[in-house]
Amino acid sequence: MNLLMLLIFGGTAVLYAALLPAKWRETALLAGSILAVYWLQPFSPIRFSGYLLPTAAIGLTVLGWWVTLPGENEPQRRKGRQENLNEESFAPSAPLRLKKKIAQHYSS
Prior knowledge:
This protein is mainly α. It has helices at residues 3-19, 22-39, 49-67, 74-84, 94-107.
């Protein structure tokens, strides 16, 4: 990335914030991000890698988004997750919970 690219990104960000209406910003951000992914790819001696690697990255991102897309029962699931969120559900306590579950399993 050189100074010209930084100036282009900075100018685009100013235009994005100043000129675009709020309802178009998500679509413009998506399109600009996809263009930036292809534009910032380094040159590679591997044939078609400048096209295939960004396309695979974007495809993997879309797949991850699609898998985590909320379903029709999302409000009930979200409420259930929030009720189950307590101090025992955080990562630092995971080894202790695992130890307790293993002890319960083998004690019965």
